[in-house]
Every structure is written in C-alpha cells, then in structure tokens.
Design a protein that fits this description.
With 326 residues, the chain is α+β, with helices and mostly antiparallel strands. It has one domain: q2cbj1_9rhob like domain (Jelly Rolls), CATH 2.60.120.620. It contains eight helices and twelve strands. The protein has a six-stranded antiparallel β-sheet with strand order 1-9-4-11-2-12. Strands 3-10-5-8 form a four-stranded antiparallel β-sheet, with no helix packed on it. A hairpin with a 5-residue loop joins strand 6 and strand 7.
C-alpha cells in the first residue's frame, strides 16, 4: 500500500492505489445491478420471441446484442448521471443502492481524505462506462462512454465556477481488469502542473484539448489497473482512454469528489457531504435520500431541457492552447 498518497498525487497528477476495494462486497453488487438494468432494457425493447433466445446469454453476449438493436441512447440507461441535454420527465439514469454504497464507501473516502482532508462532498460529475471491443462498434466509436475518449482534463467539463474554485478529484474504479489492450487510460506525466488549458469541440463532437498534437512530443504513461484498485486523478491531469482492441469488455466507473462548501461545477445536480468531522453535517444517509436529490434536480432542469453546461472554447484566443504552453 502506498504510504504517502498526497506527495505522489502532487508529483504525478495521479496515484494508483492497489487492493482498496473488495470485488464481492464492493463491486459485484454494481455489476449485478448493471445486469438487472440490461434485463429491463431487454424486456422493454426486444420482442417476446427474441427474449426467449437472449435471456440466458451471458453479460457480454447480451449487451452486444442490445447494442446492435438500435435502442435510442442505450448507454444512458447505464450512466450514473442525467443526460446533458433533452431532459424530460422520463429521462433515465442508472442509480442503485450499490452505487450509493460505492460513493459513500469508507475505504475510498479514507484515500480521498489524504488529499482533500476530512471535509468531502460527492461531486455529480460522474460516469459509468461499458466499453465493448472496438470491432463491435460503428457510429459509437468516438462516444466516450462506450468507445475511446479524446485528450482532455476533467476540469474542462466543469462550469466556470467549478474550474476556478473547485478542488476536484476523480476516483476511477475498474470493474474489470484494465490494460492497454482493452482500453485503459493514458496520462501525460506531470501535465497537471500546466493548469487548465484550452478545450474545444473536436471533429467527432467530443470535448478535447485544443492543440492536442503537442502531446505527441510529451511523455505518457498507461494507467493499467486490476479489479479492486482505484486511480485518483488531479482535475488538470491531461489524459485520454485508448480504444478497446481486445475481445473482452472494459467496464469502469468514475466518481468525483471535492472539498465541501465549494461549487460542484455541475449545478443544480446534487452534491452532498459524504465525510466530515462533524457527523451532523452528513444529511444524505441512505439511498432513498440520494435518489430524491437527483429527482429534484431533474425537475429543476425540465424547463430549460439541459442538466449542465460548460464554456467552449474554455478560453478566448490562443494563449492557453496547449502548443503555446508547453
């Protein structure tokens, strides 16, 4: 186990910590819930005749079948936040007791506290990702939830207040072993020292670093991880994820945390205290209270029909473009 997490985090912009979580107790319940959602999607979108054929498929084969079934925004059923746009009363997202347990997991919070201190809030800038082998993907190849993600900084997808005032940490959790072959993250070493750089909408419609070509001359490191490990990322660390060139799925969850009493950068989505020296400050103590926060946030977003926005490009002009900084 790493002894000085904060020093390593400050030096590298990330830290990999092994054997933090237990697969049976902490992670398998999440996978079970993903499978439950998959079965619900199957019953809603697949004909009765075909259900009999696929209901006994394993995880990989069933998800692959559904992904070819032209189900609108299939990935959103498994994502752990509201969709960014086109919010309506039926907007779905993946929320379960197992996810709430993971967000409030004391083993995770203990590691986060080494960097942020004891006053910690859950940040709603969170995602779950089911990455199929690239050969199964077509139009979704450049969708960051199911395919590869471009070079970016996590601060780049916060609003202006979040970019300026929020000490954000990403806690990246693999639910399957993650390697270069199946699309692990790739990080630019010590790039967090550059601060926030300019982001824009790339050719594939995803948020990415402007002038990303400069990364070709920078040192990168693959962030491989085993099940049970966690990877903590600085909000300014430049990173991407590789395409899944293997025959297996890569499943992961990225949770985020910040110091309490700071903006989340995703208002009005729910941010709530998960750790404090004063236990009275912890108001959200169970799954039902957590879900209620998300439903309340959804209703706030109905009239405007979007849940969050961030400024693109991040900066005017070219001064903060990556080639002009490195």
């Amino acid at each position: 186990m790493i002894k000085n997490i904060k020093n390593l985090f400050d030096q590298q912009g990330f830290v990999r910590i092994k054997n933090v979580l237990n697969f049976r107790d902490d992670l398998k319940p999440v996978i079970n819930d993903i499978e439950f959602i998959m079965n619900r999607v199957m019953h809603n979108f697949v004909t009765s005749q075909k259900k009999k054929k696929i209901q006994n498929y394993d995880f990989k084969k069933k998800y692959t079948y559904l992904s070819k079934h032209k189900i609108p925004e299939l990935d959103q059923f498994f994502n752990i936040r509201l969709p960014q746009n086109n919010i309506n009363t039926n907007s779905d997202f993946f929320a379960s007791q197992s996810l709430f347990n993971l967000i409030t997991n004391k083993k995770i919070l203990k590691k986060i506290s080494k960097i942020l201190g004891c006053e910690i809030s859950s940040n709603p800038c969170q995602n779950s990702r089911i990455k199929q082998p690239e050969k199964f993907l077509k139009k979704d190849f450049n969708n960051g939830l199911v395919g590869k993600t471009p070079w970016h900084q996590d601060a780049g997808v916060l609003n202006i207040k979040g970019q300026k005032y929020t000490d954000l940490i990403t806690c990246w959790i693999p639910l399957t072993k993650t390697t270069v072959a199946n699309g692990c993250m790739l990080a630019v070493e010590k790039s967090h020292n550059l601060g926030l750089v300019n982001h824009h909408t790339g050719n594939n419609g995803q948020v990415e670093i402007k002038g990303k070509e400069a990364i070709d001359k920078m040192s990168t490191v693959p962030l491989e991880a085993n099940v049970g490990d966690i990877i903590l990322l600085n909000k300014h660390l430049i990173h991407c994820s590789l395409p899944n060139k293997s025959n297996n799925f890569r499943i992961s969850i990225d949770l985020r945390y910040n110091k309490s009493n700071q903006p989340s950068g995703r208002e009005p989505l729910p941010s709530f205290i998960v750790s404090s020296k004063n236990q009275k400050k912890i108001k959200v103590k169970n799954y039902k209270q957590w879900i209620a926060l998300w439903e309340k946030a959804k209703h706030k977003c109905l009239q405007r029909k979007w849940s969050y926005k961030y400024q693109l490009p991040t900066f005017k002009g070219k001064k903060r473009d990556l080639p002009n900084i490195v």
